Amino acid sequence: MLQARAAAAAGYSEKTTKVIASRLESKPEIKEAIELARQSASANRTANTEDQPEFENAEQYLVAVVQGTTPPDPLRITAAKTLIAYQKGRQRAPIKSATPGQMNAASALAEDVDMLDQWAEKAAAVRARLANK
After folding, report:
1. Does residue 70 lie in a domain region?
2. In whole angstroms, what is the distance from residue 120 CA to residue 112 CA?
3. E-strand spans in the chain?
4. What whole-number distance in Å separates Cα of residue 29 and Cα of residue 26?
5. Has this prediction a pTM greater than 0.90?
6. What is the pLDDT of residues 5-41, one digit of tens each?
7. Residues 6+ apart with CB under 8 A from 77
């Protein structure tokens, strides 16, 4: 399939690209040129990866790209964004509200205080009534 696309890019007819690609690929000089191109591409890939510094985690790489100390590589940036979710666990926000148990205890205490206040008012009213008699 790649050979057919290469033949079409070279200007051959779309209808005959597969046949022409097969014929060209069987020629020794074409095979040699393809092999040289593959080796060159492979050498370029390894050279590119050797020039790039290594980072302990994806976040450090992205920070280096943002700070401009490392040249951005779109593939590495995408991979780093994907890896961050796995390298750094999700952190929950701290809970500032009281737990349900604490809320129930506070409510019960408030009810007890209200009952004691009501009882004290009633006791004061009874004392006042008895003192007037």
Report:
1. yes
2. 12
3. none
4. 9
5. no
6. 777 777 777 888 788 778 877 888 888 877 887 887 7
7. 62, 65
